[in-house]
Amino acid sequence: MIDNILTVDRLSVRFGAATVVDDVSFAVARGESFGLVGESGSGKSTILRTIMGLNQDWSGAIGVNGVPARGTGRSEFSRQVQMVFQDPYASLHPRHLVGNAIAEPMRIHRLDNVEGRTLDLLRLIGLSEDFAYRYPHELSGGQRQRIAIARALALSPKLLLLDEPTSALDVSIQAEILNLLNRLRSEMGLTFVIVSHNLAVISYICDRLMLLQNARHVETLTREQLRSRDLQQNYTREFVAASGS
Amino acid sequence: MTEPLVEVKNLRIAFPTEAGGWNETVRGVSFSLGREKLGIVGESGSGKSLSGRAILGVLPDHVRIEAETLAFDGIDLLTASSRQRRHLRGGRMGMVLQDPKFSLNPVMTAGEQIVEAIRIGDRRIGRTAARKTALEILESLHIRSPELVFNRYPHELSGGMGQRVMIGIMVVREPDLLIADEPTSALDVTVQMQVLSILDELVERRRMGLIFISHDLQLVSRFCDRVIVMYAGQIVETLDAKRLNEAQHPYTRGLLACLPEIDGPLTPLPVLDRQAAWSQTS
Asked: Which of A40, A52, A180, B139 is 20 to 30 A from A160 (CA-CA)?
């Protein structure tokens, strides 16, 4: 029996009349890194946002660590799963000190020793403790994304959802963040679901990936299948070819 | 060989600091451009976009621009009046920006914006004639139903379609020089290649000079003839695009090495080890 930390079963999401995710099912095993790939509008980010409870109008079933997404309180659910967004310039409050941004979820959940944990998290992501007293505008894009990752890890969730975590960054900084993510995953036993349009990034960091097109599932591949070009669908072949290799 | 289209010699751009000094962000950049495709590559803050904007003359007034030479087709841009430079922009120089969502006028249809560009250039062209030209240019951008796109507002267009409209606005006046600042970074990979091949076709057919600014070294080398690599406001290396693999400078090599590849190894990616010597003024 495979131990799945995330199960998404027959998920459909509607925005008004438009169906933006159409009957998509997948499961992610504990400790795995799973990629969602596709063009803009294919529904990949919407799936992540729906798992986080940021969309209301959906049908199907989502379970995280055995906890159903529907009917579970926000505070319980947020300890199971957290999300990192694409744009580190937009996802940190500009007038909150970085230390407060990291500490906030822990304060809401009334954890003890919040100060100490904040400094631990900063060290974990490779920044020195004095970063706690800086504002986001004093940080580079890569440093901000590290802070966003630290905040996502503050409640020690086992599942991390990452929406284009490196596409707003320079390639040199992208490499640093990808290395950091890989290290965190192996050290902390995390599970990742990563959305990206960059197949090279996905192939580097994910064990399996699912390709989406126009709200629908196209094909699910293991990294080995991708690398040996064991592709079944025409669209997958086109996508891999356009990704330039 | 004919006179170069753009001549830049020892360009320096500085911003005033709060303390009253100057913070120099472009520090002595020199290059010349013929009717060719030149790529400028570098990280954010390397000064690549500023250099492009200085040629176009769209930097804010408080910025200090100095150069030995800054010339476009024999016209000295340093002494040109703002009226003269306004005439060059749009007419003989065009610029394509990164994100069509932010650079198209949201309350005008795509077609009206192309017509506007045509008629600003020449008032004598009538509305009907301008409309016809606009439809032709949309068609040349491989848009299947130009009539339909003509009447759409920017928010009704996809990213790739919006970017084509922006390219249309810029090339309809047939400029001699096109500066494209990250023209495909906001687009999907599958659309990226389409937009690039359209750009390539236009540049080849109209014999324009193109400056292609991007952070993506691989993309630029596939598309351009020559590549300039910038670091901290200076040019560290100029390369023949076909000989990217022979790059000498450790910064260029570092940029190439830190990219993950679909079939690449799964070991930790090499990270740039920035050395102070790279940004020293020579």
From this structure: A40
